[in-house]
Design goal:
Low-confidence stretches: 336-341, 345-356, 361-369
Helix content: 25-40%
Number of helices: 9
Distance between the termini: 12 Å
Largest sheet: 5 strands, mixed
Shape: globular
Structural class: alpha/beta
Number of strands: 17
Strand content: 25-35%
Order of helices and strands: HEEEEEHEEHEEHEHEEEHEHEHEEH
Strand order of the largest sheet: 3-2-1-6-10
Length: about 375
């Protein structure tokens, strides 16, 4: 047996990359990609409960169980590298003076995050970006995104227990935005100087992005957990609150994405524009839910046909590649404690003997031999 074979048998060789996305409507999606073509080659999904009021996965032990079940279905070993996408918990914007240095901006953003109801109970991990779209001279337009530290730490530990390692963390609003840009659905909106609004609706409420081509200019998030009630009540409730925000974001076109099975993007578009207060040259409605009729991008023949309409826009937005625009990307791993895999002891049997070795030692032996 060669040393490389031994390392692979112990799960210490090259790790497969696996994409894992958790969303309110779809549950958990697990998939793999041909990095050269960008095509999804393996895909499976399963229900995973998510609490829209507390903005967290209802049962994290169920997260691990579902992850392992989907890996088994796809024939993927658990000792893999994971790109993780989670529902956006908090995304916000602040306009701050350009004279502020980065540490001061971080403190200002943290104070804003901690004032939200979710992070009054949980410690946040967050990142912020300067989008250079300040509307006033001498000001910077800062966008920030936050997740619950305890949730990320627990998921990291649960994955570590089965041999998986998180290598990237992404969030749903930004992956939807990037996913749209990788389809032909918003080609017109991405043209230079084209003004447009993007409205994303899920079971927890909605978010509205004011866009100029591929640049985010402004943003509003409205928490409004949708309840199982009369459809007219849901559409009227969303339209009545969103109309004022949209009036404050003048644009040529409106793009509506619905992730909620309770909301048809087309019906919502009608509700928003029927009063005549909002007028657009173009309205695009996109269903990423049970109303969806077409796949966003063709899948490889290796994907089970029963999943043809399942891969969400977020799956497309998670993919890497220079040929795709990256409109927004936050780095949560730079502030998240990294699980240390390098000196964790691995035990294995050869005949009647039990051997112990760490990944660092195994890598050293592979170089020597």
């Amino acid at each position: 047996m060669s040393m490389n074979s031994l390392l692979n048998g112990l799960g210490l060789g090259n790790r497969e990359k696996v994409y894992v996305s958790v969303t309110q409507s779809t549950g958990m999606e697990v998939f793999q990609v041909d990095e050269k073509s960008g095509h999804i080659t393996k895909y499976a999904n399963k229900h995973l409960a998510y609490d829209d009021s507390t903005k967290e996965i209802t049962d994290l032990e169920k997260f691990r169980e579902t992850f392992l079940e989907l890996l088994t279905e796809l024939g993927i070993k658990p000792n893999c590298n994971v790109v993780l996408n989670l529902p956006t918990v908090l995304l916000g914007t602040r306009e701050l003076p350009t004279m502020l240095e980065d540490p001061a901006i971080g403190q200002s953003v943290l104070a804003e995050i901690e004032s939200s109801y979710v992070f009054s109970r949980y410690t946040p991990i967050f990142d912020w970006k300067d989008f250079n779209t300040g509307k006033n001279a001498g000001m910077r337009n800062i966008f920030y995104c936050a997740l619950q530290d305890n949730i990320i730490s627990k998921i990291t530990e649960l994955l570590k227990e089965v041999g998986a390692k998180i290598i990237d963390i992404q969030t749903s609003y930004t992956t939807i935005l990037i996913g749209l840009a990788r389809t032909t659905l918003i080609e017109k909106q991405l043209q230079p100087e084209e003004t447009w609004n993007l409205m994303i609706v899920n079971n927890g409420g909605y978010a509205i992005f004011a866009m100029n081509a591929d640049k985010i200019v402004d943003f509003v998030q409205e928490d409004m957990p949708l309840m199982e009630e009369r459809a007219d009540d849901i559409y009227n409730a969303i339209a009545s609150t969103a109309e004022l925000t949209l009036l404050g974001f003048p644009a040529k076109s409106l793009v509506i994405v619905s992730e909620s099975d309770m909301v048809s993007a087309e019906e919502l578009a009608t509700s928003l524009t029927s009063s005549g207060s909002l007028s657009y040259q173009d309205v695009v409605f996109i269903d990423d839910n049970l109303y969806r009729k077409d796949e966003f991008l063709p899948l490889a023949p290796t994907v089970d046909p029963k999943y043809k309409l399942k891969p969400s826009l977020k799956t497309l937005g998670m993919l890497q590649g220079q040929k795709y625009p990256v409109i927004a990307k936050f780095d949560f791993l730079k502030v998240t404690p990294k699980a240390n895999y390098d000196n964790e002891i691995v035990r294995f049997n050869i005949g009647d003997h039990i051997f112990e070795i760490t990944p660092n030692s195994a890598k050293l032996y592979s170089i020597i031999f």
